[in-house]
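Recall that a protein's primary structure is simply its ordered list of amino acids. Everything else, from secondary elements to tertiary packing, is in principle encoded there. The following example makes that idea concrete.
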Amino acid sequence: MPYASLRDFLDRLAAAGRLARVAAPVSPHLEMTEIQTRLLAEAGPAVLFDNVVGFGMPVVVNLFGSIERVAWGMDREPDGLREIGRTLAFLRQPEPPGGWREALEMLPLLRTVMAMRPRTVAAAPCQEIVLQGGDIDLGRLPVQTCWPGEPAPLITWPLVVTKGPGKRAEDGYNLGIYRMQVTGRDTTLMRWLAHRGGAQHFERQPRLGIRVGRHPSDDHRHGFGQRR
């Protein structure tokens, strides 16, 4: 792996002049999002806010605001992204080799695919601090309020792992990105499109105390659930 942690990636960006650090106080309420919007529009660098108003932790934004940084995150240069696209397209609709020659040509692809498999480890850095029960407080995190009039801060890029209730292929683990609005100390409002993997898992899952509803602004494609 090219990066053992996010810190490694930030070090690479800093060495290449693609990371700016801001020591001035910046608020996660509207101000931080406004800065990010301008950074994206102007192809600006990634930014590390060291002084987030009201919180004792830094926030990094605009990490992947350019094709170059997206490629670097996958240990590639921009001209290597097309190769990744071909690999993903093949994995989506694989075709058996037409003969020994094609089979041999596919060996590098097979090695790439095998390297992509997740590994189970006994301990991970993300589990060095684990909060449970009454210790959970989402208010300790500098979650941004993105737009004026928004009722609550919004986690815009959460990684949500779900699993269906059965043993069919579609009930396997799904990793999705579904916006989560903070509604309390340990609750969020999660919104997803009905055809996404997480939503389909939810529809097939027994209702284990999860409250389901619909926001007035949602159309028939959207739904949300509130979870602890």
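The radius of gyration is 21 Å. Residues 138-227 form one domain.
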